[in-house]
Amino acid sequence: MEASQAEATADEDVPHPAKKRTRDPEARRAAIVEAARATFAEQGFAKATIREVARRAGVTHGLVIRHFGSKERLFLASVPSSHNLMAEIAGDPRSLPTRVARSYVRRMSRSGGCDPFVALIRAVASGEGAAERLFAVMQEESLEMYRQVIPGPDIDQRVASVGAYLIGVTFSRYVLKSGSLAEMSDDELVRHLTPNLRGILLP
Amino acid sequence: MEASQAEATADEDVPHPAKKRTRDPEARRAAIVEAARATFAEQGFAKATIREVARRAGVTHGLVIRHFGSKERLFLASVPSSHNLMAEIAGDPRSLPTRVARSYVRRMSRSGGCDPFVALIRAVASGEGAAERLFAVMQEESLEMYRQVIPGPDIDQRVASVGAYLIGVTFSRYVLKSGSLAEMSDDELVRHLTPNLRGILLP
């Protein structure tokens, strides 16, 4: 995100000397993911390029490909990872609605509404086929995790409804940016979402 | 919608002889609204023109302007009218969730997902300023009506959440078209939505 980093064009095999020690593989991966989040959020899925992500992260195009394989996979890595999502979902089902509400609000707040999730909603609504497939993959992944935590025969439907509700909240608050949902503070939003998510998830 | 009607270019003051008797002002207005629904749904808000709506309705551009004034007003008339919405909302608040669920599903089913509401969601997501203003006007209008029926200090927030939920359901079922919400039959969707709408509206 910093200008100096964004301008860096050091080859991966000949890293910028000043960064050699701090740029271990894990840190590099994190920098690429961070750059991808910003790029997808600003430019949308279709317009964003791996080259631009690499430029912002100060790494080569080849390194991004080696880590992530494709733009689709890079995108999936830039939205809340399965790892993070599992950490939210795992645990006592009774407190799940609170955790989902807090996690959603924290994440959107941290990105100031410039979240890849917003970019993806826009991309799907614009009829981008690749975005639609990505969205479906994300849904399926999160569904898998919910299934491990909450029992019930209609869990698929309930998780789909939670997803729909959060899509609509995101649309109102971060795309349309008008109405009560856009005016609430983060804390108010958590308090508002929690009982509604509970009603949908744990009827 | 019929080809013969769509091709008609009769001037309003010299109506097509065959249609003279059936085209009273009320029927003409209904034909314009019907043509507008189809046009906005197919072409989206930005691309749709009053000229195209007039062509489909078999009336002149001037007549559409005289009835509706502008494309914005025509659009608002083509989504469920305030009159219809009030008919749904008025009545016993306890059965309101059922009525909202049925009304939503019936409307989307009738249009086969080609509803101006879908076009509007797409337009807002694409960043069309006019669409955003229209959406805000629609939200404010429906809010006014809910306020007359349901009491409570946080009614604005609850109605905003119902709106968000239905936006998300529409997005999942008619834009993304994947996942459980897209797979449900109309009856299943009504049964699924009703308790969730009740939980949000009447906690």
UniProtKB/TrEMBL annotation, chains A, B:
Q: Which InterPro entries match?
A: Homeodomain-like_sf, HTH-type_TetR-like_transc_reg, HTH_TetR, Tet_transcr_reg_TetR-rel_C_sf, TetR_C_16
Q: Which domain of life does the UniProt lineage start with?
A: Bacteria
Report whether DNA-binding shows up as a keyword of the record.
yes
- According to the entry, every stretch annotated as the HTH tetR-type domain falls at 26-86
Query: What is this protein's name?
Result: TetR family transcriptional regulator
Instruction: Kindly name one Pfam family recorded for this protein.
Output: TetR_N
| The entry's DNA-binding region | 49-68
